């Protein structure tokens, strides 16, 4: 699958299938502070991701 | 995973509520939370004139949208802080939303109207840009609200903001800050307008879901001056705890408001005066904003 880190100008390819929770663990990403979007739709941590999916990961933390 | 309300496929899970929602039911939950917060804390009513402070980020855009949709009498206020392209892009986002939804918007520009430059001021005064920015914003929100007859100022502070602020205030034992922290900052002087935080029980993630599901344009990029801010570190630490123990952030904040806050009192009785230059409320002879303006005029 293609994984895009929104706002970070970064894109990688990750082997599928696996669910969102496993992907987050593999990438060391906190599920509480990120939103996962599969092919344009928001998905839950149990959603299975396949090789032809495009997954966007958005950080929700803002500060200042 | 199924929506706990309608049993359709869920798209959002909220572990701290042990809940999962489809898009439609999440928006129902979100609106209910906002309305409950407004009513429970007596923030404002339908006939109040509410000044909503917007930055173009997800939280304030979500607040503006939900209050306007719920029929509150809202006017938004945006301050262009002169932070290069970041400020220009955020102003564009806010203006587009106001135009598209036919909503009133007040725009202020601190460089053009007051000659203020946050970067120069922070270097000259050896203060962090966030501290200078906060002083300017708080002054202008209150001035615009007072001068234009608004009864309340609403900001997009969320559960993560409030929990991070609380953690910071506890780590530093800021007694007077702890005594004041809450979803409502009441009017303590005729020229100090009441401030409220209707999103204080909603997380940043929930605000992000709200803007994404409603296809609301927002500025995702962060203010360049906020990189390395301590508030972000506190939020990350709290999210680590939240992931392993869902509900931590809400228990921390709500527990403080219900059980902890009463033990903190304002350290001293602060006398409120009117600024000798602009007439607005201050604890000194001249308010911080007028002093910043003078420093700015001196350094050029």
UniProtKB/TrEMBL annotation, chain A:
Checking Pfam families in the record gives: ThiS
Q: Which InterPro entries match?
A: Beta-grasp_dom_sf (IPR012675), Mopterin_synth/thiamin_S_b (IPR016155), ThiS/MoaD-like (IPR003749)
The name this protein goes by in its record: Sulfur carrier protein
UniProtKB/TrEMBL annotation, chain B:
Record-linked InterPro entries:
Rhodanese-like_dom, Rossmann-like_a/b/a_fold, TilS/TtcA_N, tRNA_thiolation_TtcA_Ctu1, TtuA-like_LIM_N
Q: Which Gene3D superfamilies match?
A: HUPs
Annotated Zn(2+) 2 binding sites: 275, 278, 287, 290
For this record, an example GO cellular component is: cytosolic tRNA wobble base thiouridylase complex
Name a GO molecular-function annotation.
ATP binding
Domain Rhodanese: from-to ranges: 31-95
CDD domains the record matches: TtuA-like
Please list the cofactors this protein needs.
Mg(2+); [4Fe-4S] cluster
Q: Which of this chain's residues are annotated to bind Zn(2+) 1? A: 3, 6, 22, 25
The organism sits in which domain of life? Bacteria
Alphabetically, which GO biological process terms does the record hold? tRNA wobble position uridine thiolation
Q: What is this protein called?
A: Uncharacterized protein (TIGR00269 family)
């Amino acid at each position: 699958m293609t994984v895009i880190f929104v706002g970070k100008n970064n894109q990688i390819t990750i082997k599928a299938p696996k669910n969102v929770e496993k992907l987050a663990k593999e990438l060391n990403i906190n599920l509480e502070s990120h939103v996962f979007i599969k092919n344009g739709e928001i998905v839950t941590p149990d959603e299975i991701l396949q090789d032809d999916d495009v997954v966007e990961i958005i950080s929700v933390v803002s500060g200042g | 995973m199924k929506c706990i309300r309608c049993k359709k496929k869920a798209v959002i899970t909220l572990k701290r509520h042990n809940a999962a929602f489809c898009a439609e039911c999440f928006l129902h939950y979100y609106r209910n939370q906002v309305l409950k917060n407004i009513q429970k804390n007596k923030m404002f009513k339908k006939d109040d004139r509410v000044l909503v402070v917007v930055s173009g980020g997800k939280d304030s855009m979500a607040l503006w949208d939900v209050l306007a949709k719920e029929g509150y009498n809202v006017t938004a206020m945006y301050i262009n802080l002169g932070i290069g392209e970041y400020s220009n892009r955020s102003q564009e986002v806010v203006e587009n939303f106001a135009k598209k939804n036919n909503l009133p918007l007040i725009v202020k520009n601190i460089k053009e109207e007051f000659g203020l430059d946050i970067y120069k001021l922070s270097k000259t005064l050896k203060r962090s840009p966030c501290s200078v920015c906060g002083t300017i914003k708080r002054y202008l929100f209150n001035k615009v609200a007072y001068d234009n007859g608004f009864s309340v100022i609403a900001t997009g502070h969320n559960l993560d903001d409030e929990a991070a602020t609380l953690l910071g205030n506890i780590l530093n034992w800021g007694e007077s800050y702890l005594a004041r922290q809450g979803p409502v900052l009441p009017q303590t002087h005729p020229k100090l307008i009441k401030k409220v935080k209707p999103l204080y029980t909603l997380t940043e993630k929930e605000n992000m879901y709200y803007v994404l599901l409603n296809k609301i344009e927002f500025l995702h990029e962060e203010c360049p001056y906020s990189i390395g801010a301590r508030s972000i570190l506190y939020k990350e630490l709290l999210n680590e705890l939240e992931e392993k123990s869902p509900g931590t952030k809400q228990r921390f904040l709500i527990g403080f408001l219900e059980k902890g806050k009463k033990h903190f009192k304002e350290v001293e009785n602060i006398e409120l005066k009117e600024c000798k230059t602009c007439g607005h409320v201050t604890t000194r002879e001249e308010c911080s904003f007028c002093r910043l303006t003078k420093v700015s005029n001196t350094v050029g």
